[in-house]
Protein 1
Amino acid sequence: MPRREDIQRIMILGSGPIKIGQAAEFDFSGSQACRALRADGFEVILVNSNPATIQNDPEMADRIYIEPLLPDVVRRILEIEKPDALLAGMGGQTALNLASALAHDGSLARLGVELIGSNLATIDEAEDRDLFKQVCEEVDLPVADAHACSSIEEVLLAAERIGQFPLLIRPAFTLGGLGGGMAWNRGELVEIASQGILHSQIGQVLIEESILGWQEHEYEVMRDAADNCIIVCTMENIDPMGIHTGESVVVAPQQTLSDRDHQMLRDASLRLIRRLDIKGGCNVQFAFNQQTGEFVVIEVNPRVSRSSALASKATGYPIARMAALIAVGYTLDELPNPITGEGTTAAFEPTLDYCVVKIPRWPFDKFRTADRTLGTSMKSTGEVMAIGRCFEEAFLKAWASLEYGKPHPRPLTLADTSEGEGMGERAETPLPDETLEHWLRVATDRRMGALYEAFRRGWSIERVREITSITRWFLHKFQRMAATDNEVRSAGWASQDGEGGIEPSEISAAQMRRWKSAGMSDAHICDALADYPVHGLNLLPEGRGEDAVMRCRHSHSIHPVYRMVDSCAAEFAAITPYYYSTYEPHGLPGVDSVPQKRRIAADGDPARRLVVLGSGPIRIGQGIEFDYGCVHAVQAIREVGHEAIIINNNPETVSTDFDTSDRLYFDPLTLESVAEVLLREDADGILLQFGGQTAINLALPLDARMAHLNTLGLEMSLEGTSPDAVDEASDRERFEAFSKRVGLRMPNGLTGSTPEEVRAAAHEIGFPVLIRPSYVLGGRGMEILTNDDQLDAYMREAYIAPDKPLLCDEYLGHAIELDVDAVSDGEQVLIGAIMEHLEEAGIHSGDSTCFIPPQNVSEEVLAQVEEWTTKIGIGLKIIGCFNIQFAICDEKLYVLEVNPRGSRTFPFVAKSTGIPLARIAARVAIGSRLSDLEIPERTTGLVCVKAPVFPFIKLRGLDPAPGPEMKSTGEVMGSDPDPARAYLKARLATELPVPTTGGVYITVKDEDKEAIADVAGRLIELGFNLHATPGTAYALRAHGLTVEIAYRIAERQHPDALDLMRQGKINLVLNTPSKSGGAVLDGNMMRRLAVELNIPFVTTMSGAKMEVEAIAAAIDGIPEPHLLQVKYLD
Amino acid sequence: MKAAHGFSPGSGQRGVSNPYSGVDAADLLLDSADTELTSATGRGVLLLADGSRHEGILFGAPIIGEGELVFTTGMSGFQESLTDPSFAGQVLTFTWPLLGNYGVAPGISESSAVWPRGVVCREWIDHPDHRNCIGSVHDFLLAHNVPGITAVDTRAVTRRVREHGVILCMFGPLEQEEEMRNRLEGMTSPDLEDLVDDVSRDDAVLLNEGAKGNGGIPMPRIAALDCGIKHNILRELCKRFEVLWTPPDLAFDTLLDEYQIDALFCSNGPGDPAHAGKAFASRETLAAGLETKIPVMGICLGHQLLGLATGLETYKLRYGHRGANQPVVDLVTGKVSITSQNHGFAVNPRDTEPLAPHPIWQSQGAPEALSDAPTEVRFVNANDRTVEGLDVIGRPAFSVQYHPEAAPGPHDAAPLFDRFSEIVAKEMQDELPLSKRGVA
């Protein structure tokens, strides 16, 4: 069937902000769809509220709206744009739910917009749990015994009918399993099911018999309108049923099914998607009983998903691109296979000659109080993927990509029971066996490390199998890894007291090949040889560290070979420049170099090969923004004709789409793998400033290794800001000295390497102080402390060592905080934007709501900001991009910190001002002068607001209030000529309701009681009822305001705030948290409940004022959507 | 486990009182549990005729492996592949690097033996995990006296084959490298051997005798010419026919007169379809079948023989199609099936230059058409557009290059057996019986 000619304009919906359960994969799929459809001559209109995506870059779509993804807003945009069709399958559950709402309310029909890809009936049948069950039964496929319920009464009845616990609760139409879970008794059932009903878009949950211990398998399927079907990829979860697939460690292709088992599930997948009439990509999940060969269908996602992003990256098959083309009428056999090029079609099933492992990235390293237990709802923020020729290699590479601070599984000790940052003597004591068994039994982020540890301790396969129900095949692989690990360890000098043991330089070629092909990194080998010293491998003496292993390896001429991800196991010559590294046990010696000739750059010289480091998994503090930066850097490099090479390990991203760069290396972002890629490429330069802290942290180590790489013939430079300048900007003391020299003001700050020094520092500065560890991203461990008790408590938890001091800063109360993003070429500085934070200093900049242009800052101060920014850029010799945080306290400007890299606000700045900072920075970093570049004219006339999105709903145990430690997962943007309306759009885009009527609960700390009166008065004017705690209420009544008093929660009398909230009387909570006393717990419980009931709450005074403005604007109606006006360089 | 022992197609079929009981290759693992066999160990080397060498570790039987080096890209179904007689004469490289994850199971082999003359892989799994597993791939090779070499960079080997075409090879202990290299120089192509003779039956046997279909109607009888037939073809045929499992060279007249068959089937098999041995004899039987207008179906080698019988040429593909992901387009419906394939030769459509002309035709000229029935290309490979299936015009006959019986591989093409079954039913209705009709 040929391309449809009756469609010209297509609207694509994005997925909104990055949140748990919905990460960068939909930027990837949406971007592929945009590229594919535009290349085929369609006009694309894109709507997404997330400024940090590539898909809403000016060159990706014809018309772009950065607007809230709400039915009212999208309907209005449909009215304005009048597209012929709506493609919803690229924007995850968010887009699917929107399309479903607009179809059901008749808007699409009224406006003559056709839903393409999966149609309404398909969506309903796949998403509605009851209908789906019927569909499965119709085509004779087994499903678990389950009942769809819309009330707690029905839930209890269903439980009775199934007859046994545990039961699974699966809400309909939610993403990432939100509101689902497993209940072991009636109480849990009621609790989880009520959440599920609340969060389901249609108020429905499925109560399902649990099939604990069965295997979980996924099939990624494509189907076209002519009914051609293929399986793109199969995937098997290592974790048995009961854990959301997004939370599972996944292997592709499936490993433990025989051909008969596999064909049975393949047939079932095809039968199901034919019945559902899916056109495009979809994902079918099965539970499989390995003992009996029985299976049941779990669910179908009638759209591209995180799994399909993984499948795309695992096989090279561009699922989203093909799904988009199928949606406009093409059939699979008409489309060429973009991997192998001419002569092959997209109608084939990829076959792999390697093993892929995906591991989720969880935020528990930051959220230490959050409940780590994994289950049917998602908690991970992102994931990593690795490819190897054997399972062990893929697994260990994936592990190294996680960046938790342990690049390989180290023996578990008591220190791991808390945060695992060394922790002195605790690290000397091995983890007790009982704890280890518990970690194996209850799935958490620690389970994979525990598996490794159990086999290191010699536990039997059957014992671990008994505890975990994990398929034995995988357990054998873990056992194998532990055996190799033990082999290295016992060969080492440390375990033999130097007698007969070997040092890194003495590793034989045969040993090296064996260990490398078993997946061990150089760091892993040196650590094992040293018998895993308590203080980590970085403190190993010279000659025994990672560097020594590398030198020995190179002396044997052992390097990885690079294999193409070609979707056909080398059957056809592929054209896709997408590689992974591997060590073959009998590979050829020497560097496996890139065969192609260099192309000729714009200036007529041979192109330079420039490597851009990606940013790894999406995590708190390092999100999609950095991937955006990398993609822009690549575009900038290619623009001038050089070759851009990407190294990254995140399967969700646009940067790891094989046609983003000239060559893509899917490998860990470790010194070892980066160095090997540089050698293979014979690279001319590397750019570190776009991949966030991951990349910039490699600057110094890479610099140190450069001399050795030179001896292997590599002549290369670190492009942009020099490692020394990076260090000067990042090292507290050096930067202080610099500030003094050039006359910049900083808050008083001191460092301490011992608890005594820290205490002395705090006293010298005076409480309150801002305390944090050095060299961090996302403000980990940063807190504001007001007295000695808190300081003592902080230091009990913190890790302090001479090389890891604590920083103690003067806390600037009530300061306005500013963020500046800029580019410097060493002589001139281009300021992208100055952003004013809504919240006062003390809230992490990543969690703040910020405005372009600043709203409350004088021209004078702004001029000073510009002057200082220039001074810093030139003074620190920054070449490329940087970000500065300033504070204004009592009209005085302070520099808080400088980040010599791209920041997370770069895309927001680019979309607000039209200045593509990342791209300009990349051009500068590779040698252009700012004066040589054509800088687009700055967009003016709009106020642009960036607002954070938080994961509180997903993470129990986490205090839902922003603070100095970053907690948000993503952001949204709103813009309008009027600041209140711009803010309203951003607020709406965060997907929390903006109330226009109802009740407001107010409880503020003492110093805010006066200031809240204005806000409260305004709320009454707008028609709200006020409720308050006694203290706040008396203060308000003193201003003549009508307020109802509720008990404080701690008083245990009724009604308290929680009662009112549960009764639905509260639509907004204004609560500025106290730092001490009973109100701390009260506030926490109230915010927690607000999160669960989806009631918006505000925790700052400035936020409260803005919220009221937004409410006033909302009462006037939803502001008109704006077409994004910016245009980058042509 | 007993139930799955052996090969017994048609057991449990209505009307079958004495089902056939044959041997499954995995039986050897059940039967020979206490026999101690010596396995190959130590470093080995795989030598290719182009001069390249690939080191690895030996496993399986302690003998030299030699043959024509081919690769298969299927990710599952190793046991089915190893027991597929079409691999006779070849050394089989698995591109999927983890060989034998789920081990060997009873009752699912495709014949009674392991046919490749050697196995090349990246890693064989010594801890297979599956509810039906009775041994590892190593145990299986050892029991069938087939050598293997592992820890080989199979992707490098595959690329060699892709670039060079299928190539002669030899592998064994590192110490014997020089000796092997000398032997390899004098080695001749297995295509010259009568491989079909090696893998096929010598006597005819009737399977499914007395089987009844819907409504208690006796099933029609088909002769399945065994050129190296896969067990799953017999299983599929037994669902629809009384099956006379015959040697490939049984004369058509005998089939018709003595066995009173209603339809004719020609199986897959190894080697060159133009070989003058048993393959040629089969071709003659097929041609005679076409001439009498009896329903005829061919699979794989059977398809090539049908092509030859109708005067089409065959030629050797550079490196063949072996795997479970080959897309085939039906030129009539436009639909694509993902198919299981294992062939090194192909039929050349009339009026087209073959991609690589067969040496035989250069010396002897085009094959003599044994039947004047015209053919039409019905199926082509979506990738390289090679012929994947023929319809014989005006005759109830067709053939496909790929494997509708799967095993291993996807079931997309399974309806072809029904198509044939319907053809046979229709012929029997329309033209009334060649033999024992009258019951319907």
Protein 2
Amino acid sequence: MDAAQHEDVSKHMGQYYVVFVALLCLTAVTVGVSYLHLARPAAIAVALVIATVKAGMVAAVFMHLISERKVIYAVLIITAVFFAILLLLPNLTTFEHHSGLPGT
Amino acid sequence: MSETVIPYMVKPHPVTGIPNGKFGIWLFLASEVMLFGALFSSYVLIRTGMPHWPPEGGLSSEVLNVPLATLNTAVLITSSITMVLAWASCKMGSLPRFRLWMGATIALAFVFLVVKYFEYSHKFHLGHTPSHDNFYAVYFTMTGLHGLHIVGGIIVNGYLLGPGTKLWAKDPEHFTNRVENAGLYWHFVDLVWIFLFPSLYLL
Amino acid sequence: MSVKQHTAATGNGHGHGNRDHGHHELPFWRKYIFSVDHKVIGIQYAVTALVFLFFGFSLMMMMRWQLAYPGQPLPLIGNLLGETAMPGGVMAPEFYNQLGAMHGTIMVFMGVVPLAVGGFGNFVVPLQIGAPDMAFPRLNMASYWVFLPGCIAMVASFFLPGGAAQSGWTSYPPLADIAPTGQTMWLFAMVLIITSSLLGSINFIVTIVQMRAKGLSFWRLPFFVHAQLVTAFLLLLAFPPLEAASVMQIMDRVAGTSFFLPTGLVVSGEPLKVAGGGNPLLWQHLFWFLAHPEVYVLILPAMGIVAEVIANNTRKPLWGYRLLVYSVVSLGFMSFVVWAHHMFMTGMGTTMSTFFQITTMIISIPSVVILTCFIMSLYGGNIRFTTPMLFATAFLPMFAIGGLTGLPLGLTASDIYLHDTFYVIGHFHYVVAPGTLFALFAGVYYWYPKATGRQLNEKLGKVHFWLSFVAINFVFMPMFFQGMAGLSRRLYDPTVYAHGRGVQALNVLISWGAWGLGLAQLFFVVNFFLSLKKGARVAENPWNATTLEWAAPSPPGHGNFITEPVVYREPYEYSVPGKSNDYSPQFRAEG
């Protein structure tokens, strides 16, 4: 290991600890909010937003995505598109399902 | 020893900027996104198809053990930072400190599984098995598959902590790359739990 | 830690790669069984796949007896398969269903894909990009050795009580949820096969992106490699949802969950004792999310092979190379958003039905573009009708028929009538059988010399082609008419219906065509084995081709190439004006 890599990593250690603490705090927040028993849509939105922020920090900092290469971004963007399709389309189709009986 | 040398196993490719292993693990994680994505999509489809959730009444947070799961969330988050520290120790050239932090990561993974064991056995005790209703079917299947991924991580990390360290002597950069790739997998497992925990326990 | 080196796949093994740092003979089991050499693994996949193609075909040949002569005892083998499957030598309906489900499963997952991707992909891609092996040779070996147990489990399921899976290759619940044990084995085997596929796709993508030879930019890649790259992405991202669904169906069957079991389900007059609350259509969504991209996995490598063979045997560049690449990429992307055209009859609302109808119509465009480019590639060519070229040329009209007959299925209105009839069977078999399978045969005849150092016999090859081509059309063309007459698929005895009796004569025609097609394959099998010992020996480039694999010895040895290959030009520089030769290989410095 050369000195440059040594330095590189030790500079980032601070970031890692900040994210660690932030993750624990956001966990407490998400549990705390659940006790408020918000209305269903708001509860889902808040929980998912907090989860996305947490996940984003893990991905960006712990997984080094913030400084990753284009090829990895390309793979992940393609995956995100298909993930969204997989999440949305079966559910949209089910909502519009008709049993074939009149009036349904 | 004769060898077919595979280019860019350790050094990054001049155009993509990454070595083969890192590319490979990200592709694997992309497939895992689709795997868990299918389960999340199924969860939404099944849940929205039922009039009440949980079907027997009450709230998910009443039926499932939120304190234990919160503890487990903290355990996994901590194991993520220890994993980062394990990798950083490699980058900074210290095998003993790598051993310490990787050991901690594995230990925390075991704690996660032990807590899960208590959660599961309590449910079984109450007759709340996967066949009881779809709430439990979803809960056990999703957390079970996630748990299997934790086991997989323990095996990989255990290998790196144990027999895998032989590579450190021969090629420390290659070993560090392996630790980083294992870390990417481990953080992903944490990431899945970050979504699983509120989706199953709190909503 | 570098990967150990391995000797050539078969035969000569002369020619040592420049990356050979010392010679070390491996024991037999490391050289041929647990090999990490992509050429050995490719041949393992190819041979395994060919065995299962013949096995899957045999299952169908038995079905064809029941369809042509319903209720008649099966000659010769009728009494060999036991009283449960064949009481009195007559096929039991349950056994017919097993044959049907397993024929489809085996042909798709253990035949075509392992041959097209595992076989041709593994063997040819590293050679065509000038690499010494795949990016992850040990992962490659693991892929094969996870695949094979999956295949064995699949076949072993015939011996379980209740027999093999018998709910169609599509395994729809609720039926699949309550089917005999063979279905659980099917699910378990699928998990293994899917895992093998995922590991393989990772290998292909990393190899193609990271390990190309110097001078081999993306726009100089042979079309075959582009096709395999897109295929790998399809496998990577489309398979996991089926793996998830398989886990859920296993849970339903083994743990008593109700993922796919609706409330109030009654089986044989008794309410099923499950919690309910599930949705059978959830399985269909997850299954088809994979299975539609899967059919593009079936066709894309075939298109790749056809491209290589056509360019080589017309002695001119492929027409519209860039157009082909853009088309194959858009085909790959679109394949992820059409799946519910398999579900038009499930009560979907008009908005979603329209959405999937539109995407399905759009996806036909890149297919047509690709076919047009191939046809245009023939125009003005100096055509050599070698056996590979015969198969590749036949692919064109056959794929056209397959593709065109898909259109009424993609349109919701006509699909109402045609869904689950023999029309569907005719459509998809045209694409996969005289389509993909012919392209795969072209690939075998084309690359056999590279893999073995010997040519396959041309006369036997031509007989194999013509007999197969005629027979295969007798098998599948009548099915369109049966389907339009309303004959349902997966029907044990068509003659119970008047509309079935009306087209029963066609069943006899089809069956004899199928048995003839089976016999025609003997010419291939004999040729394959005979030529290993007696075939004419060849040097590196018997076809005077331009792509990189023809720079390596036949068969290639350690590290594939004698000197590190460098690429100087585009992949299909045939008949370049002003040059003395009618081909300028990519790997030769001066034209």
